[in-house]
């Protein structure tokens, strides 16, 4: 009589605390200062809470305890926010310079109100330089990926196409690459937030629809890399 095979149990996902521990270890491997920043973020609110308790409660024990608890909770929150930002910076640092890195930012970290694809709208298959396009309240943003000396031609070519389709819409250009004047990958999202808003939401939708014809012929390479799925390299 054949044995009944036991059903294979699905691998259990790590708990929230374990995930946070993994994120912390990965971040600390690439950012040694994260421990001190988190410690500062944790102790700062606690110190403020203690000071507030001493000067505002008038010796009331209940108020003293509440202020200290509030300081501890605020410290934990501040430490977690710092860890999240430093972890994102470390993750993007691992893929910076790789083809498709800008696409990873477009897929996971574009600011609210901006629309863009992880696939480039223009690319050089030989050099793997690429141009990505996003549309938002600030108009159109083109991001050149690769050395500026090579990607400038691609960006200007795409800018001419955009100006032909939507001539009255402002076009902002950023470069992400090895050049000194380029925007670091982890600061690309922040750069989008600095673009002045000039369009209304209906106008953004109209621009997206008009530029759809340009996207139809875009090259499907290189594909974006997901920074949150990148395996950290082992420190040597």
Rounded to an integer in angstroms, the radius of gyration calculated over CA atoms is: 24 Å
Helix content: 40-55%
Total separate domains: 2
Strand content: 5-15%
Task: State the distance separating the first and last CA atoms.
Answer: 54 Å
Largest sheet: 5 strands, mixed
Overall mean confidence score, pLDDT: 82
Any low-confidence stretches, pLDDT <50, length ≥5?
218-224, 230-236
Structural class: alpha+beta
User: How many beta strands in the DSSP annotation?
Assistant: 5
**Counting H and I runs of at least 4 residues, what is the number of helices?**
7
Structure description:
The protein has 236 residues and is α+β, with helices and mostly antiparallel strands. It folds into two domains: 16-95, no CATH class; 101-225, no CATH class. Helices cover 51% and strands 10% of the residues. It has seven helices and five strands. It has helices at 16-30, 34-56, 61-95, 101-108, 148-165, 188-193, 201-215, and strands at residues 115-116, 122-123, 130-136, 139-145, 171-176. Strands 1, 2, 3, 4 and 5 form a five-stranded mixed β-sheet that branches. A hairpin with a 2-residue loop joins β3 and β4. α1 crosses α3. The protein is elongated and about 70 Å long.
């Amino acid at each position: 009589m054949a044995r009944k095979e036991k059903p294979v149990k699905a691998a259990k996902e790590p708990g929230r605390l374990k995930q946070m521990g993994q994120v912390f270890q990965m971040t600390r491997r690439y950012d040694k200062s994260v421990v001190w920043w988190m410690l500062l973020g944790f102790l700062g609110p606690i110190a403020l809470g203690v000071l507030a308790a001493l000067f505002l409660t008038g010796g009331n024990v209940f108020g003293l305890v509440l202020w200290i608890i509030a300081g501890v909770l605020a410290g934990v929150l501040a430490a977690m926010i710092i860890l999240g930002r430093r972890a994102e910076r470390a993750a993007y640092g691992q893929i910076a310079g790789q083809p498709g890195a800008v696409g990873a930012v477009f897929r996971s970290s574009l600011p609210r109100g901006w629309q863009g694809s992880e696939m480039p709208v223009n690319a050089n298959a030989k050099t793997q330089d690429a141009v990505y396009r996003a549309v938002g309240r600030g108009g159109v943003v083109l991001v050149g990926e690769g050395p500026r000396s090579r990607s400038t031609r691609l960006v200007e070519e795409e800018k001419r196409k955009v100006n032909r389709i939507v001539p009255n819409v402002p076009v902002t250009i950023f470069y992400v690459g090895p050049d000194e004047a380029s925007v670091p990958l982890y600061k690309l999202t922040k750069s989008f937030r600095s673009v002045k808003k000039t369009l209304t939401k209906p106008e953004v939708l109209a621009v997206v629809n008009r530029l759809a014809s340009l996207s139809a012929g875009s090259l499907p390479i290189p594909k974006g890399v997901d920074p949150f799925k990148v395996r950290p390299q082992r420190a040597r």
